[in-house]
Each structure stands twice: as structure tokens, then as C-alpha cells.
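Fold this sequence, please.
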Amino acid sequence: MINISDSARDRLLHIMQQEKEKKNFVRVGVESGGCSGLSYKLDFDVCKNDDDELIKDNKIQLLINKKSFLYLVGTTLEFSDGLNGKGFVFNNPNANRTCGCGESFSL
């Protein structure tokens, strides 16, 4: 299960309303790269693929491909608007090491 905080929900809904083309889903994933080996990916999509897991939490429909799902189980997606920067934050209990910017991790 992946959780969406209220701050992330509010920001995601705001962004989705601003899009010219209506997007029904938020897509998150993990890909190779970043200074710690793996990096997070966040995007919007209009359709679900056959290999996607659909998670509904806090009024958001989240798509995660099955490969990325294993890395993200238990993660909470949050949005930070503080002094250290503005953006989405993945609080992933599976990550053994993260980089300073928080955009990449390793297991």
C-alpha cells in the first residue's frame, strides 16, 4: 500500500485541474539513476496499463507498474512547501540510503 498525505493530495488535485488535457491518474514509479542508484518518477496519465497496480487513497487514483510497486510498498507521498525546497517527497521505509536532495535511494 502507498499512502498520499493531505498536502500531496491537495497539490496533485491542483496540478490536475490546471492541465489542459484531463488526466485521471497519478503515475509513480522507480527507475535506474540518481546518485544513490534508483530515482523516483511522478507523472500524470489518462489510462491504466495491464501491468499497473491501481491504488486509491485520499481521493487520488495512483498507478504503479508492478516492478516499481515492490520498491514503493509502505511509502507515503507528501508535498513540502518549506524553507528546504518545494516539491513532492517520497517517505520510503524500504530505502536504506537516500541522497541529500531526496530524489534517489538504494535498498
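The first strand starts at residue 3 and ends at 4. The radius of gyration is 13 Å.
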